[in-house]
Amino acid sequence: MTAAHHSTDPQPDSAGPTTPHLTVVPALHPPLRGPAVALVDPTTPPPRPPHRPGPRPAPEGVRTRRPDLFGPAWSLRADLPDPRTAGRLLLTTVLEALAGRRPLTQVQKLTAPGVHAALVAGRRPAWCTGGSAPLVLGPVHVCEPVDGVAEVSAVARRAGRAHAVAARLEGIDGRWRCTALSIG
Predict the structure, then answer these.
(1) With 0-12 CB in 10 A as exposed, 13-18 as middle and 19+ as buried, what is 154?
(2) Which strand (E) or helix (H) includes residue 181?
(3) What burial class does residue 115 get, using C-beta atoms within 10 Å of its C-beta: 0-12 exposed, 13-18 middle, 19+ buried?
(4) Which residues on adjacent β-strands are paired with residue 156?
């Protein structure tokens, strides 16, 4: 046997560039045979998301309400009050209404119809209704993801326990209106 080493891999040459080496790996599955199977029926229309009635964004730069448009209109952030103040008012009013300290009708002007209907028909959290300890709402945190939308959150404390509350506010007709509410 000679001292020369024989290998199938190319040895890198220090004088020139290395050439790439391609290794063929067999597939784990056999290739498909036969006609292709359509996963989507082309005759069936695509599913549509459920209709969510509500305001439509105003054209860019339009801040006034046009008489030929019906229904609520989006408001720009410049036309709306401070979302932190509106969020605190909303969260306090909702928690007091759920605790039975004020009527739920007072929440109606602050919420969208769907949110108000859910509050009237839904279960009330036991921590809201039970006990006579005062309900304390902590600092309200605000995030504004897009113009005319604010997401507020806070921690409500009662009898030594902490509970998260959050709401989505949308600027509609020059005021904030709650379109989603979560009480933990």
Answers:
(1) buried
(2) strand 175-183
(3) buried
(4) 137, 163
* Phi, psi (degrees; rounded to nearest 5) at 18: -85, 145
Enumerate the β-bridge partners of residue 172: 74, 175
End-to-end CA distance of the chain: 80
Separation of alpha carbons 9 and 62, rounded Å: 70
Per-position DSSP letters for 117-165, written without gaps between them: HHHHHSPPPHHHHS--PPPEE-PPEEE--STTEEEEEEEEEETTEEEEE
DSSP letter assigned to residue 90: H
What are the tens digits of pLDDT across the range 52-106?
A: 555 555 555 555 555 556 667 777 888 888 999 999 999 999 888 888 888 888 8
Rounded Cα distance, 2 and 163, in Å: 81
Please, what is the average pLDDT of the chain?
76
Against a cut of 0.70, is the pTM above it?
A: no
